[in-house]
Amino acid sequence: MDEMEAKYRFLSSQYIHFINSQTNFERVVTPTQPHFGRLETTLFQLVNHVSNHSTYHRGNLSAMLRQAGHSGVSTDYVFYLFERQREGEKSSPWNNF
């Protein structure tokens, strides 16, 4: 678990650095996906996709836990923010990096 947390913190710090170094989220980017080909979109749309896609993975993990007999938990980001506030932490998770 410690190794996973360390990797998460490292990847999170890289993501934050990337976001903070951007000056134009409306710039056009053209990623290629092996099955669908090239896509012309904006950097903003890709960042939005990353945030949205993490919801898919949280749902998968929650379903696997329930199938293994564990109780599910809320995976909505806003509930995470409420929990942090209840614990007396600042609402921004980026303060840890």
From TrEMBL:
Matching SUPFAM superfamilies: DinB/YfiT-like putative metalloenzymes
Gene3D superfamilies from the UniProt entry: dinb family like domain
Positions of a divalent metal cation binding: H53, H57
Keywords in alphabetical order: Metal-binding
Pfam family, one: DinB
Coiled-coil intervals, chain numbering: none
PANTHER family: PROTEIN DINB, SLR1116 PROTEIN
Family: Belongs to the DinB family.
Entry protein name: Damage-inducible protein DinB
Protein species of origin: Paenibacillus xerothermodurans
Taxonomic lineage: Bacteria, Bacillati, Bacillota, Bacilli, Bacillales
